[in-house]
Amino acid sequence: MLSNQAGDEKRKSLHGHWSSRMAFVLAVTGSAVGLGNIWKFPYIAGQNGGGAFVLVYLVCVVVIGMPVMMSEILIGRRGRRNPVATMELLGKEEGHSGKWRLVGSLGVLAGILILSYYSVIAGWTLAYIVKSASGVFAGASAEAVEAQFNSFVGDWRLIGLCHTVFMALAVFVVARGVERGLEQAVRFMVPALLFLMIVLLVYSMNSGYFGEGVAFMFTPDFDKLTWNSVLAALGQAFFTLSIGMGAIMAYGAYLPEETSITGSSAAVVIADTSIAILAGLAIFPLVFANNLDPADGPGLVFDTLPLAFGQMAGGVFFSTIFFVLLSFAAWTSAIGLMEPAVAWIVERFSKTRAQATVMIGFTIWFIGWGSVLSFNVLSDVTFLAGTIFDNVDYLTSNIMLPLGGLLIVIFAGWVMARNSTADELHSSGSLFKAWRVLARFVAPVGILLVLINAVL
Ligand code: TRP
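The joint structure predicted for all components is written out below.
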């Protein structure tokens, strides 16, 4: 079947290609599995009342997340450039408009803003490696663990330093273009993380409050569900899958022609969702067992998990390893968050990868101070969604990512010719038809409905 891509020669990416399907799946899994699963999912679910939120989140992952992810990968592979240039190129090639590049620009900006606060939290996980190893949590009470956390985030110099160290690590890897090495780390990191989540789960099951935890997560109470929590669930689905901002599009640009987009997406979605659910199952029983508040906010994992590890045999060891793994997970996500901006600067301004990374890294580090100070000096400065940190988080997860995702599925479903997408998805059968119905109708209508209702 003839596609409207010029000539038979397929494009090549400037930045090289993944060596195998496995390398691609590992890279995308590395970007998806991160603080979103273990830090953010439990606290957002807690703040939004549990059950009904979790259900809406799962529905969003399947009917919106999956088609958006497939659309991003197929657009990325077809354009084979940075997200800005790819959207411009395909917009013109499909006979529409080069203005579609703005979707790419929105993504570049979203990545910068997300990493600005993501790095602050990742810095906390670095500090918690040291705290765990020093044994401060061994046998500590819930009050002591909470006090540890509060005095830690209250110290702006200390968490600012941790943010700086984490950004330096991220810049170092992206600048040297040695992500491939880090991607290999995903090979043992994800299974190891799963293993430790299961250790925690077993501990939780024996806490005597497992039933309460499960009920909180899986008994939907629709009275608690507001349009704002539906939006939070949609935003979380986008955030945790790394979609809506062109990161997966940038990764798709390096994907070999013959790799199955549907299969790779399904593998990533299943791995990512399982880790989030396991994290919730491990954390909520501990919250109830220790009389903590599920709506505690960003400190939730930092209050519950050290407490559990502190009471476990071998807890110092497990806790240290856990925070090492979580830092690694955050690291592989951070490099994905920078990729659209870095690839864009390299291609657009003919900078070297190192120069582009340092520029972008510095900008992100600078903006990140707004979030560093949100937990101490500026904690009383609140507007719209709350502190500066809350606002950056709300704006990116709940507005920019869904909006980016909406435009991406509209592009793939309505602007691109049927043949172009069928060509990339290697099918015109029932799977393709299902994707197309989701991308053309279900996902755009769903996103619009939630955005409109929540914002009004
Ligand atoms: N998915 C990541 C996490 O759950 C965070 C994230 C959002 C991300 N968008 C991204 C990572 C884009 C890489 C690329 O922690």
